[in-house]
From TrEMBL:
Stored Pfam families: mTERF
Keywords attached to this entry: Transit peptide
GO CC, alphabetical: mitochondrial matrix
Lineage per the UniProt record: Eukaryota, Metazoa, Chordata, Craniata, Vertebrata
GO molecular function: nucleic acid binding
Protein family membership: Belongs to the mTERF family.
Protein name listed in UniProt: Mitochondrial transcription termination factor 2
Gene Ontology BP, a term: termination of mitochondrial transcription
Length: 375
C-alpha cells in the first residue's frame, strides 16, 4: 500500500511540474536560489527560460544582472525582440557584463566593423566572443597591432569573432607568430610586397593560425623539406592549404603520404605532384583517405584516373557518386574520361552546363538536387 501511494505521489508531482509557468524558479535541482528579478526580466524579453536553465542555469542565480541594460544596447544597435531573445538564449552570460564594459566593447569592435549592422550580425553568430569583456586591454592592443600591419578590417573582425582567444592573450604572443610567418614566407622566396596579401589569405582560411606555437611551423616545413619539396613548392603548399601547416603533424603526414603512394603506385616525384595538386592529402586522416579511395574504386574509377585528378579525394563518396550518376543520365561516361569534370563545385557547374543542364541550385551547395527540363 505504501509503495502504491508513493508511486502515485511521484507521478502527481511530475504532472504538476508541467503546469509550472516558465518564470517559476525551480530551486529543487539547483544549489542556489534563482534571482527572480533576472528570470522575470528575461521572460519579458521572450527568452526561453527553460532553455537557459538547461544550458546555463547558474546565470539565473547570480545576484547582479543587467538584463534591461544589455537588451537596450542590443536594441540600440538595431536588434529586434526575436534577435535579442536569441542572443540571450545562446549566451545568457551576456546579462552579467557591466554596461560600461559592454559599451567599451561595442566601441572597440566597431572600429573594425563597417557599421552597427555588421557588428550586430557578428554578435548574433558569435555572442560569446563579443561579450568576453575580461581581456579588453589585450583585445585593444592586438587590434592596434593588426591594424598597423594594414590588414583588412573584415579579416580582423573575422579573427575576433572566430578565434577570440588570439585577442585575449598578450599582443607579444601574436607578434611572435606573425614574425615567424613573415620569416617563413620570405625564406620560401615570397615577395615582401605581397606579404600582406599572403598573410590575409592565411588568416582568412584559418582564423586559429595565431594560436599555434611558432615552432610547429618550422617542424612541419622541415618534414616536408625532407620529402624533397622545393622552396617554390613549399610556398605553394603553405599558401593553398585550407588548414595551417603548423597544425600538420609529421607522423600523420608520413602515414598519409605512405598510403597515397602505395594506393596510387607512384614514385616519389609523382607523389609530390599529387600533393601539390591536392594539398588536402596532408591533413586528411588515414581513415578518411582510405574511405574515399575505396569509394572511388567501388564506383569503378581507375587508379590512373585518381592519379591524374587527385583532388577528387577532396570530395566525399556521396558527392562523387551523385555527380557521376547525374552526368551519366545525360550520356556522359566519367569512367572513359578525366575526373576533372566532377572535381570542384564550379568546375562541375561548368561541366554540366556544357551538357545543357539547367542550373537550379546555388554554387555553394554541391549536393542539392538538380532539376532538369525533363523532371
Amino acid at each position: 500500500m505504501l509503495r502504491v501511494t508513493t508511486t502515485s505521489l511521484c507521478a502527481f508531482c511530475q504532472k504538476m511540474r508541467l503546469f509550472l509557468p516558465p518564470f517559476a524558479s525551480l530551486t529543487s535541482h539547483s544549489k542556489r536560489e534563482e534571482n527572480q528579478r533576472t528570470v522575470d526580466s528575461l521572460y519579458e524579453l521572450s527568452v526561453d527560460i527553460r532553455k537557459v536553465r538547461k544550458l546555463k542555469g547558474w546565470v539565473l542565480s547570480e545576484k547582479t544582472a543587467y538584463v534591461a541594460e544589455t537588451a537596450g544596447l542590443l536594441r540600440d544597435m538595431g536588434a529586434d525582440t526575436a534577435g535579442i531573445a536569441h542572443i540571450l538564449e545562446t549566451h545568457p552570460e551576456a546579462v552579467l557584463c557591466p554596461p560600461e564594459d559592454v559599451d567599451a566593447q561595442r566601441d572597440l569592435w566597431g572600429s573594425v566593423c563597417s557599421g552597427q549592422r555588421a557588428l550586430l550580425s557578428i554578435i548574433k553568430k558569435f555572442p560569446a566572443s563579443f561579450f568576453t569583456v575580461s581581456h579588453h586591454s589585450n583585445q585593444r592592443a592586438n587590434i592596434l597591432y593588426l591594424q598597423r600591419l594594414r590588414l583588412n578590417k573584415k579579416i580582423i573582425s573575422k579573427l575576433m569573432a572566430s578565434a577570440p582567444q588570439s585577442f585575449s592573450r598578450p599582443v607579444e604572443s601574436n607578434q611572435e607568430v606573425i614574425h615567424t610567418l613573415r620569416e617563413t614566407y620570405l625564406d620560401l622566396g615570397g615577395d615582401e610586397g605581397n606579404l600582406r596579401v599572403w598573410l590575409q589569405k592565411l588568416l582568412s582560411q584559418n582564423p586559429y593560425i595565431l594560436l599555434r606555437p611558432a615552432e610547429t611551423w618550422r617542424d612541419s616545413l622541415g618534414y616536408l623539406r625532407e620529402w624533397g619539396f622545393t622552396t617554390e613548392e613549399l610556398l605553394s603548399l603553405v599558401s593553398s592549404l585550407r588548414t595551417s601547416i603548423s597544425e600538420l603533424q609529421p607522423e600523420a603526414m608520413r602515414q598519409a603520404l605512405a598510403y597515397v603512394q602505395d594506393a596510387l603506385s607512384c614514385s616519389e616525384d609523382e607523389l609530390k605532384q599529387v600533393v601539390i595538386r591536392c594539398p588536402a592529402i596532408l591533413y586528411y586522416s588515414l581513415a578518411t583517405l582510405a574511405g574515399r579511395f575505396q569509394g572511388l574504386m567501388d564506383a569503378r574509377v581507375s587508379v590512373e584516373q585518381v592519379k591524374e585528378s587527385p583532388n577528387v579525394l577532396e570530395l566525399t563518396t556521396q558527392i562523387v557518386l551523385y555527380r557521376i550518376q547525374k552526368l551519366a543520365s545525360y550520356g556522359y561516361d566519367v569512367h572513359s574520361g578525366s575526373l576533372d569534370v566532377i572535381v570542384g563545385t564550379k568546375d562541375f557547374e561548368m561541366s554540366y552546363a556544357k551538357l545543357n543542364l539547367r542550373q537550379q541550385r546555388p554554387l555553394f551547395n554541391p549536393v542539392a538536387p538538380l532539376r532538369t527540363a525533363e523532371e
